[in-house]
Amino acid sequence: MFYNIIKNFFLKKNVTKKLATHNALASNEKVVTVGVLVDESYFSQTQQLLDKIVSQGIDASNISLLVYKDKIKKKEEINEPFLTLKDVSISGEITKEVVNDFIKTPFDLLINYYDVNKSSLLLLSIKSKAKFKVGFDTVDKRVNHFIIKSLVENFDEFVLELFKYLKILNKI
Fold first, then answer.
1. What pTM does this model have?
2. Which burial class, exposed, middle or buried, applies to 113 when counting CB atoms under 10 A from its CB (0-12, 13-18, 19+)?
3. Residue of 89, 79, 98 lying closest to 123 (CA atoms)
4. Where are the domains of the chain?
5. What is the pLDDT of residues 80-106, one digit of tens each?
6. Which of 44, 52, 56, 151 could make an S-S bridge to 163, C-beta 3.0–4.6 Å?
7. Number of Cβ atoms within 10 Å of the Cβ of 126
């Protein structure tokens, strides 16, 4: 436990340094591929969120999901790619290959579906090669290109607002 406190402290320091030099240039390309980064510590309806995104016209095969979990129960089975604090080093290096592949993928849209500033999630968002990033207003404003004011529980409202503005921005 003490190790996690120290790890979070140094990760937070590392993320703050990266945010200071982070260049958030958005792309004007149409949205075809979508990455979804979800914090399942506070939101467990991941499949319904993905179904709602698919219902807006995005092909399910073009959606990639990465789940962050604070703790994994001993007998818990996880079907989707996931990340825990154990997979991130103090210096911010990610040891899990699936997560590194997610970060290196140049998504047209990255949905940061978390509303709590966790250093490991912010680090993933910053390192992501996504061309356009969307998230909640409670997260550091320098991470996302577009911010939606909503609650995490209201995924219907979030997705409807997102796609309404993507149409206005001529991205879909």
1. 0.83
2. buried
3. 89
4. 2-59+72-168
5. 778 877 877 777 788 888 888 989 999
6. 56
7. 20
